[in-house]
Amino acid sequence: MNTSTLPSISLWNSQASPILWINDGLNRDRHLSLRGIKDSELRSSFATADRAEAIRRQNLIRLFVENDSLREFVLMDHFARMGSAVRIPADGQQFVNYFNPHEQNEFWTRVEQFEEIVSQIPDFSRSNPALSQMAEHLRTEQVRLESSEAAMGKSVVDQLLKATTLDGTVTLQLRKEEGRWNFATWTKDVVGHRLYALNPPKDKVSIHEFFEHEFFEKIGIYSLLRRREESRIRREIRKWANPIIVTELPNEVLRDICNYMNDILREEGKKEKSLFPFPDESKDGEFVDLVIRFSYNGEGLKIKLVGLSDQQTVPPEFEERWAKPMDEKWSRYYRSDDLEKIDTMQHNLRRRSYITHLLTNYYPRLKQWFAGNFEKLLGSNGMVIPSPASDDQFKWSHGETVCREKWTETYQASKDVREFAADHMYTLLNVAKIANTFVERSRRWQLPLSFPEIVEGEQATLSFDALWPVALIGRKTSGSKGRVIESKDLRPITALGNLAAGISMLTGGNGAGKTTTGEEILGLLHDAASGFPVFGKNVRLNLRTVIGSIYLEHGDGSTMQLSLEKLGAVVTEVANHPMNGTFVFWDEAGTGTTASQGERLGMATLARFRQIGCTVLVNTQIPALAENAQNRLGAKCFKVDMAHTISSGIGEPDIHELAREMGLEKVLNLQKN
To answer: Using CA atoms, how far apart are residues 114 and 126, in angstroms rounded to an integer?
Structure first.
């Protein structure tokens, strides 16, 4: 068989260069939890700075969002790494089916289903070339391998059926324990062989060269190590060879026999009026030893009820009934050896008497019952019974070994294509899960999904017609009568235009949504760089390599000290990156000191950002800062009112409106300006 080279494809490059986050202001856990992807297997690779990779991910996720049949198929996880479609099974019928023609072979059946789905997707190969290449490889391998696999499977099944031959007897004791009758093992004899391993160990005696020095030979260390190594290899060979000849009844065979016989008793125990001849303890004793002959070969495990054991155990209460011990007054006239012989003779007499009783009074009833219910169990050929444990041990568990050793090329090709499918389908499964959560939330929240257009070029771009602030879902509105915000309460963020390279200022009252707007745009940049859809309309942007955040901090040191530290870190970092690849969100600019000092700090920092050339989104409570930034630095200013409406201009903070919304207007005696 000609070998096939596995194509090198990447559906999701987890090693793609990530965005550099400075003072990460995105509450990532909550952001991802809201979208249902916090625990995604791909989380560590979210938000890449690689435009080509982001677009490839977006196309793949879009494919699952827009094609329900593909998404549902992949979510079924037919190609799980340890699933029956991929691994060579140890179960008998599954093993037979595994290599059967495609109408029964689960792996190739699933491959055909996958191919049928993707073949109906318009423009599939152009929008998802890697996935198209994967589907084409599976299609080619099916044509190349399917008939060879079927031939291999048939040959291997024939070998496995002849791999083991066992014959023997087992004595099962029918006895009552804890009020229930069951069969337990008493004695067992077996002879047979098995093909447990195909090749003996190939280890050779190897001593570290350090010990080959003449000094170690003289003092005997080298000889000692060599003998130990030779002994180890002999033990390994014995481990391989010993299982070939079977002289002890394997537990698996015994388990199958006991399980079958006890199943008979359990079914009888469920009946109100069972006709099974359970022994009468007062007449027949506490237990009866039944001999069962068995054979195990390609036909399966076959058993036959032979009769009572000639080594039947005699219950203590029957000892004196069947033979009285010798009178003690005569014992002094015998030697100890003679007494032992007499005791043995009396024991055998008691056992024969008890067996005669069982044969006469009990066994005919038992035999009659089996003749009426399990006639084959008494026949000359015996009866084939289920043997899952035996088959697993002696047949199917060695299927992979036989395939590997006797059909090397076919086995390796079969194994490679299944691993190839399992690995890439696992990636697709994780992508499908991401797509599915977005689809479900879009339907539940009744919000539109939009895949951002990721543009290329030197000019920074960030625009949208609408962006819904889903970060608010689940939060409480302010005030004493605050209620939980639902998706129906959301108002889209609009009217910001193109937040290109330069400065954009958000002004207006406290609680109007300036911080939320900034957070939502940070989330937008994260999701677009991950290939995700967003809850918005007509989103257009270029990817950012560096994203910085500056928030008010509380900790060791004054608020202004902490803010200055963050400002310094962000300015230093963004200065080292291309101007269209950086984005900074500055929350509450100038807050933490007097209005005049806050304005002074804000203007100096914004001038530095403008010099660097990055995109900056700022919200501030200081109107003078926004006005000066507009006049002197060309900043675009927007005002956000208490109805969360955005419009051009500069808004004044209105503490009266905030207090009124919180229900504190009268408590604080605030009057409208």
So the answer is: 18
Q: How far is CA 432 from the centre of its chain?
A: 15
Residue 648 pairs in a beta bridge with 638
Residue with tokens 């059909």: 407
Among 598, 597, 582, CA closest to 546: 582
CB atoms within 10 A of CB 561: 12
Residue 269, token pair as written in the block? 């125990």
User: Are the C-beta atoms of residues 620 and 587 closer than 8 Å to each other?
Assistant: no
What residues contact 381, with CB distance under 8 A and at least 6 apart? 302, 304
Check whether 495 has a pLDDT greater than 60: yes
- How many other C-beta atoms are found inside a 10 Å radius of the C-beta of residue 227? 11
Average pLDDT over residues 412-420: 89
The answer to whether residues 56 and 531 touch, using CB atoms and an 8 Å cutoff, is: yes
Checking if the pLDDT of 241 tops 60, the result is: no
Of residues 25 and 664, the one with the higher pLDDT is 25
Q: What pLDDT is recorded for position 199?
A: 46
- 60-86 residue pLDDT tens: 999 999 999 999 999 998 887 656 556
- How does DSSP assign 65-80, residue by residue? HH-HHHHHHHHT-TT-
Distance from chain centroid for Cα 107 = 19
- Closest C-alpha among 527, 544, 668 to residue 35: 527
Let me know: does 394 contact 249? Beta carbons within 8 Å.
no
What's the rounded Cα separation, in Å, for the pair 102 and 142? 9
Mean pLDDT, the chain, integer: 82
Distances (CA, A) of 379 to 258, 295, 310, 469, 624: 19, 14, 21, 79, 106
Is the pLDDT reported for residue 480 higher than 70?
no
Spatial separation of the C-alpha atoms in residues 506 and 637, rounded to whole Å: 6
Contact 200, 237 (CB under 8 A): yes
H helix count then E strand count, the chain: 23, 18
pLDDT tier at 323, thresholds 50, 70, 90:
low
Which residue, chain included where needed, has tokens 């072979």? 105
- Rounded distance between C-alpha atoms, residue 118 and residue 496, angstroms: 40
Question: Rounded to an integer, what distance in angstroms lies between the CA atom of residue 664 and that of residue 237?
Answer: 88
Least confident of 98-107, 138-147, 249-258: 98-107
Q: Tell me the pTM.
A: 0.71
Say which residue the tokens 């900034």 belong to. 518
CA distance from start to end of the chain = 89
* Cα 35 to Cα 328: distance, rounded to the nearest angstrom: 92
Please determine, for residue 455, whether its predicted confidence score (pLDDT) is greater than 60.
yes
Residues shown for the chain: 673
Which pair of structure tokens corresponds to residue 419? 């691993």
Angle at alpha carbon of residue 566, lines to 563 and 571, rounded to 5°: 120
Q: Which amino acid is at 371?
A: A
Q: Are the C-beta atoms of 1 and 416 separated by less than 8 Å?
A: no
List the one residue out of 577, 580, 609 whose CA is nearest residue 458.
Answer: 580
The candidate with the shortest Cα–Cα distance to 499, out of 534, 544, 450, is 544
**List of E strands, 5-100:** 20-22
Question: Which residue's structure tokens are 């560590």?
Answer: 44
44 touches 74 (CB < 8 A): no
